[in-house]
Amino acid sequence: MPSDDEAPHFRRRSRAPKRLAVSYRRADRASPRRVSARTENIGLGGAFVLVESPPPIGTRVIVYLAAATAWEPLEITAEVRWVRLDPPVGMGVRFVDLTPAQLGALHDLLVLTGYGEGFVAP
How does strand 60-65 pair with strand 74-84? Predict the structure, then answer.
């Protein structure tokens, strides 16, 4: 049996290696300051966001995804589940409290970017 360090990472939903421009802000702050970033991978359940100074694990953030099918960016609440401090630095986020409309819009955005084409879930 593999140790915790060797155990494969488990996700409820698959992710695809998609680099998308995003921005985010901390959900608990009144400041509208957004940090520009990019995804390393993304799926319906979350994403890995490349960012120089990730917030601490457990922090709630609002992730903004630009969608060609919408006038306004898609806003999704997420929770920082883990951080990587070695390059490429970033944070793994889990999308939380998605409404059916947000889930549908996220699905449409992923399909438009080629999500699923040639991708086989582990």
Answer: antiparallel
Distances in Å between the Cα of 25 and the Cα atoms of 29, 36, 90, 98, 102 are: 8, 9, 14, 17, 18
Helix or strand (DSSP H, E) at 79: strand 74-84
Which of 20, 28, 104, 100 lies closest to 62 in space, CA to CA?
28
pLDDT in tens, 38-90: 999 998 899 999 999 999 999 999 999 987 667 888 999 999 999 999 999 99
Q: What per-residue string of b and e applies to 49-73 under the rule 16 or more CB within 10 Å gives b?
A: bbbeebbeeebebebbbebeeeeee
Q: What domains are defined for the chain?
A: 21-112 (2.40.10.220)
